[in-house]
Design goal:
69% helix; 19 helices; single chain; mainly alpha; two-stranded antiparallel ribbon; 2 strands
Length: 483
């Protein structure tokens, strides 16, 4: 294994380097696995009921195109700046420290909500296999009774996954690869069941719900596709050429789009839309129906658990690297930038996020929907800023080294960047009051709490530091002078 580059942590004096131990497949498994969480298992029936098979597929392809265009901007920027933190570094160079914090805090918030979501989704899924899981009632949250034994399933899993990530990115990557392979096998079985036990007649009506149904599916796209940007977060731990890192971002988005379309198509072939809408866990019930046995439904649930673990693992890794990068730049307290002395992982950032996911199951299943909705606006905001900084850097630094140049040598890349900005602004508008996917009060409360905390840190960042390749050094120097 090659010796990793070492850089000094100017804020603490410790060796602040991460280990370059991930290969092509490791990086792709992180990005793809992050996007394929639990939503495909539990939400597919609702998509089909809202928009029909054709409408749901069209919405998912549309979402995949939007994320693909955004992914192109990430691909170029990641290849040009392969450093841990992804968005953090792009925005520092193109828009300066304060905007860098806003974008980094936004995507971190999205990651954290999904990590917490998976901690709630795990006991929810396990309950399908073990119906008597819930014992020792604790309290009620939004009409949902929370039981100690149920909550502990998610809480204990949070401890285990956090410990795996503390032990090192190579172990986390190996675990990710194993689970992604298992997930792909489940996908192939689902396709086989559709071919042998499904029926095209079950897909009728093919289109339903009109534009409202279409937007009801489209609005979950940020939640479903967030994760391709985990690849940039781990760029300092990937031992492959920078150009290839950028390409993997786009490949991960394409694969996730194919997966979601496949899930809609196969699930809708199993049962009429009305039955899917009332199913406990639609995709699992569809699998059991196609094969004529509840055993196969439980096999699909195993695939759902695999999806939970891949998404959880990847986004925990991504969120911790972002917090580590913000701490390394002086935007967050030094505590978040501490690396484990042996495993070279951001141990305190991992513990912080792990603690939030440990607590999430104790708020019950209502937390699932709130977490999905509260993180989505932050995710889209980060995508808008990255797309915008892509355009800014194209104009301000045309000679910047770009191992992977999107759109060729002319203005094609700039056009792609503006298209990404417009598409993401349109997506963000769907969450506002009066729009088809307007959020309810609980998600806005969670969203607000995250940003109140963010404003506290934002106000610590000095004004007047111009963007540029040395913005981080100038920021650290000014913070040092203040102390």
């Amino acid at each position: 294994m090659p010796t990793p580059d070492r850089t000094a942590d100017t804020t603490s004096g410790q060796d602040a380097s991460l280990l370059r131990v991930l290969g092509n497949w490791d990086a792709l498994a992180l990005g793809f696995g992050a996007m394929i969480g639990f939503g495909w298992v539990v939400l597919t029936g609702g998509w089909i009921a809202s928009a029909g098979t054709g409408g749901a597929m069209l919405a998912m392809v549309t979402g995949g195109v939007i994320m693909g265009v955004v992914g192109l901007t990430y691909a170029e920027l990641t290849a040009a700046m392969p450093k841990a933190g992804g968005e953090h570094n792009f925005l520092l160079r193109g828009m300066g420290p304060r905007w860098s914090f806003v974008g980094s805090w936004a995507i971190t918030g999205g990651y954290v909500t999904i990590v917490a979501f998976e901690a709630v989704a795990l006991p929810r899924t396990a309950e399908y296999i073990f119906p008597n899981l819930s014992h020792i009632p604790l309290w009620t949250v939004a009409g949902d009774q929370v039981h100690l034994t149920w909550a502990l399933v998610g809480a204990v899993a949070a401890v285990v996954i956090t410990l795996i990530n503390i032990r090192g990115v190579k172990i986390a990557g190996a675990a990710q690869t194993f689970v992604v392979v298992f997930l792909l096998v489940i996908g192939l079985v689902l396709v086989l069941g559709s071919v042998t036990g499904g029926s095209v007649s079950n897909m009728q009506p093919f289109l339903t719900g009109g534009s409202a149904g279409f937007f009801a599916v489209l609005v979950v796209v940020p939640f479903l596709f967030v994760g391709f940007d985990v690849i940039p977060q781990s760029a300092e731990e990937v031992n492959i050429p920078a150009r290839q890192i950028g390409r993997l971002v786009v490949v991960a988005v394409i694969l996730a789009t194919i997966w979601y379309v496949m899930t809609i198509l196969t699930t809708s072939s199993a049962m009429p839309a009305g039955e899917l809408a009332t199913a406990d866990i639609a995709t699992a019930d569809a699998m059991g129906t196609m094969f004529g046995t509840d055993i196969m439904a439980k096999v699909l649930i195993a695939g759902g658990i695999a999806g939970i673990l891949t998404s959880w693992n990847s986004l925990l890794l991504g969120a911790s690297r972002l917090m580590y990068s913000m701490s390394r730049s002086g935007m967050l307290p030094r505590w978040f930038g501490v690396l484990h002395p042996l495993y070279r992982t951001p141990v305190n950032a991992l513990i912080f996020i792990g603690a939030l996911s440990f607590a999430a199951p104790f708020f019950g299943t209502q937390m699932l929907g709130w977490l999905v909705d509260s993180g989505a606006p932050s995710i889209v905001l980060a995508y808008i800023l990255v797309s915008l900084v892509f355009v800014i850097l194209r104009r301000r630094e045309p000679a910047m080294e770009r191992p992977l140049r999107i759109g060729g040598a002319g203005n094609g890349g700039t056009v792609i960047g503006w298209i990404a900005v417009v598409l993401c602004v349109g997506l963000l508008s769907l969450y506002l009051p009066g729009m088809p996917a307007a959020l309810t009060p609980p998600p806005w409360i969670l969203f607000g709490l995250w940003w109140v905390l963010g404003i506290v840190f934002l106000l610590r960042i000095p004004r007047g530091i111009a963007p540029g390749h040395d913005a981080e050094e100038r920021l650290l120097a000014e913070l040092s002078d203040r102390r």
